[in-house]
Amino acid sequence: MEIKINNLEKYYGNRKVLxxxxxxxxxxxxxxITGPNGCGKTTLLNIIAGLDKEYIGxxxxxxxNLNKEIADKMTIVFQKPYLFKRSVYENIEYPLKVxxxxxxSRSKKVLDIVKKLEIEDLIEKKAHLLSGGESQKVALARAxxxxxxxxxxxxxxxxxxPDAIEILEREILKFNEETNGTVIIVTHNLEQSKRLGHxxxxx
Amino acid sequence: MDYIIQGFKEAINLLISLDREVLLxxxxxxxxSTSATIxxxxxxxxxxxxxxxxxxxxxxxxxxxxxxxMSIPSVIxxxxxxxxxSRRGPLGYLDLLYTKKAMIIAQxxxxxxLVFGLTFGLTKSRGDxxxxxxxxxxxxxxxxxxxxxxxxxxxxxxxxxxxFSRAISEVGAVMIVGGNIKGYTRVITTTISMMNSMxxxxxxxxxxxxxxxxxxVIHSIIYSYSQED
Lengths: 203, 229
Ligand SMILES: Nc1ncnc2c1ncn2[C@@H]1O[C@H](COP(=O)(O)OP(=O)(O)OP(=O)(O)O)[C@@H](O)[C@H]1O
Ligand SMILES: [Mg+2]
What we know:
Number of helices of chain B: 10
CATH architecture of chain A: 3-Layer(aba) Sandwich
Order of helices and strands of chain A: EEEHEHEHHHEHEHE
Shape of chain A: globular
CATH superfamily of chain A: P-loop containing nucleotide triphosphate hydrolases
Number of domains of chain A: 1
Number of strands of chain A: 8
Strand content of chain B: under 5%
Mean pLDDT of chain A: 95
Low-confidence stretches of chain A: none
Number of helices of chain A: 7
Shape of chain B: globular
Order of helices and strands of chain B: HHHHHHHHHH
Number of domains of chain B: 1
Low-confidence stretches of chain B: none
Radius of gyration of chain A: 17 Å
CATH class of chain A: Alpha Beta
Distance between the termini of chain A: 22 Å
Bound molecules: adenosine-5'-triphosphate, magnesium ion
Strand content of chain A: 15-25%
Strand order of the largest sheet of chain A: 5-6-7-3-8
Radius of gyration of chain B: 20 Å
Distance between the termini of chain B: 47 Å
Helix content of chain B: over 70%
CATH class of chain B: Mainly Alpha
CATH architecture of chain B: Orthogonal Bundle
Structural class of chain B: mainly alpha
CATH topology of chain A: Rossmann fold
Oligomer: heterodimer
Structural class of chain A: alpha/beta
Largest sheet of chain B: none
Number of strands of chain B: 0
CATH topology of chain B: MetI-like fold
C-alpha cells in the first residue's frame, strides 16, 4: 500500500509535535523510522493507522482517503502491546475470526505463524500473563496472521532477546518478500533499521 | 431488650424450620429481582459499552445525567410505573398493576440506569485501548462491543451483582406496583416493612438475615470467580 502524506501537522494543546511537509511511503517496501524519544514516531504511526484523527493535513492510501476497507487491510503492533485475556491461540485467531474465516483455515493459519515465529510453546498460555518479550512476539504473530497490506511496527523488538530478534527480523523480511506487504518500522536500533529497511527516515 | 433476643430466637426457628411463607416470599423476591437484573443487563450492557467508547458532542453532560439517573429513588420509579399501568393510564388495558410482571417492569426500569451508568463509566475509562486494538485487527462495531464485554467481564459481573443487590433490597417500587399482596406479590422488603409497622419482629428479622445472606453469597461467588481469573 502506498502512503502519501501532505502538510501534516499535529498539535497537543499548543505544542506542535509533528510537522511533515511531504512524505511518501513506497508500496511493497520496508521503511525504517528512527529518531530521539518524544520526536513523534508513535504519534505518526497512530495517525497513519487511523487511530488518531485529530490532525491537520492529508493522508492517502493508494490514492484514497481512509475507509473501513483500507483499515481492514492494515494493522499496527504497539510499543506496549495489549493482548486479550484469553489464550495466545485465541489472540492470534482474532483477526481471522472477525474476517469470517472458517475454523479449519483459522487453525491452519495460526499454527503456521506460531511455527514460523517459533512460539509454539506459548500457544496454550493465557496471553495477559506473558512476559513483555513474549507479548511482543504474540502481538506480531496476531498482526502477520492475516497478511495485511500495510504493517506498522512500533519498536517491535524492544523487549526481545538477540536470538529471538533474529527470528522476528527474518519473518518480517519474509513477510515483505512473500506478500509484497508494505512495512513501516520504528526502531531505536540503527543496525536493525539498516538490516531491514529499504529506506530509513530520520525524524 | 428481651423482645429483641426473643425476636432473634424465633427468627432462627423460622429459618431452620423452612417456614412455608418465608420460602414463598424469598423465592418471589429472587425471581422478580433476578428477572429484572437480567432484562436490564441485556439492554444496558451493550448500550453502556457502545456509548462508553463512542465519541460525541455533549458526552460530559450525558455522563452527568446518567450518573444522576443511577440513583433515582425507587418510589419515583414505582410511581411512574403505577401511573402508566393504572386503569386510566396509557397501558391500563394490560391489567398489570399489582402483579409480578409489574414488579419486574418497575425493578427493570430502576436498575437500567444503574447498569448502564456503571458499564458506561467502566468502558469510558478502560475500553479505549481495547477498542483501538480491535479496530487495528479489523473488528466492526458489534465485534468490538462483544470483545469489550468479554475483556471487562469481571467488572461487569460485579456491576450486575450491584444491580441485583439494589433491586432485591429496594422497597418503594415493588410496594407501589405490587401492593404487597399475601402469597402473590409479597416480597422480602415489603414484608419487613409491613411486619415492622405491625410490631411483628421475628419474621422481619428472619427475612432481614436472609436478605443479607443472599447479598453475601452473590458477592462471594463473584469474588472467588475474580480470584480464579
Ligand atoms: N496524549 C498526549 N497528550 C499530550 N502530549 C502527548 C500525548 N501523547 C504524546 N504526547 C507528546 O508528544 C510527543 C511525541 O510523542 P510520541 O509518543 O509520538 O514520541 P516517540 O517518538 O514515539 O517517542 P519514544 O521514542 O519515546 O517512543 C512527546 O513529547 C509526548 O510527550
Ligand atoms: Mg514511541
